[in-house]
Amino acid sequence: MALGRDRRQERREERHGGGAVKYRMRQKLVSIGDDYWIEDEAGQRVFKVDGKALRIRDTLILEDAGGRKVAKIQEKMLRIKDAMAIEDGDGNRIAMVKKALITPLRDRWHVEVENGSDLDVKGNILDHEYEFEDDGHRVASVSKKWFRVADTYGVEIEPGTDPVVVLAATVALDMMVHEDR
After folding, report:
1. Neighbours of 33 (CB within 10 A)
2. pLDDT tens digits for 157-176?
3. Under a CB-based contact definition with an 8 Å cutoff, are residues 11 and 134 in contact?
4. Structural domains of the chain in order of their starting residue, each with its CATH number
5. Which among 35, 43, 22 is positioned nearest to 158, based on CA atoms?
6. Where does the chain cross the membrane (predicted)?
7. How far apart are CA 143 and CA 110, in angstroms?
């Protein structure tokens, strides 16, 4: 049985270029005021999502395992379309997650990255089956298929892609499509 699993893993790495890092997230990620850990494949706590309560705007803080603030995710008010800003630990904007104006058949979102390539997000955001693309090349995937645990999904990030930007954007997308939280 283990041999079959090893072969499946090898085929997956061949398809995806190997070296990708997979994170485990909860489908009902977080409500404002709640805290949640993002784990790696081995179950190690890597980032904590801290839901800041009693704010006028939705605000979440992403901390590393040592408690250092690496990103702040905050809803932007008074905008025509949905948007959430992502700032680094020093308060500098690192990305802006925006819903595309035209969404013909499926959800389309855009992540404007301040010091890097912008990312297009395509797929079914609501059901956690989507990809982040940089100029048509997949740099991260989000899927519920990797984990058998209910209400859990994975984020697989390719080497060379900033995990903080992708994970923070994933949290922002989750907040934006599940506005009832």
Report:
1. 12
2. 999 999 999 999 999 998 88
3. no
4. 19-177 (2.40.160.200)
5. 22
6. none
7. 18
